[in-house]
Amino acid sequence: MSAFSTNDGSTLHLRVFAGTVLLLFGLLGARLVQMQILDQSQYTDEAEDNAIEQKLVLPARGYIYDRNGELLVDNITTYDLTVTPRRFETEHLPDLARLLGVSDSLMQVRYDRVVQYSRYKESVLMENIPFGAFVRLRENQYRIPGIGFELRQQRRYHGEAELAHALGYVREISEQQLASPRYESYRQGDMIGIAGIEAHYQDLLRGRIGREFVLVNTHGMEVSRYKDGADDLDPQAGWELHLSIDARVQALAESLFVNKRGGAVAISPKTGELIALVSAPDYDLDRWRGRLSQDFVDYVYRNPDRPLFNRATQSFQPPGSTWKPFMSLVALEEGMITRDSRLFCGGGYLLGGRFFKCLGGVHGPIGVERAIQVSCNTFFYRLMNDEINGKRMDLTTWSTWANRFGFGTLAPIDFPDQHPGLIPDSTYFDEAFPRGWGPGFTINLGIGQGDMGTTPLQLARYTAAIGNGGSLPWPHLLKHQINPTAGDTLRPRWESEPLRVSPENVDIIRRGMELVVSSGTARIAQIDSVTVAGKTGTAQNPRGDDHSVFIGYAPVDDPEIAVGILVENAGYGSTAAAPIASLMMEQYLKGRVDRIGLIQVVMNRRSGRDRG
Question: If you average pLDDT over every residue of the chain, what do you get?
Answer without folding.
Answer: 89
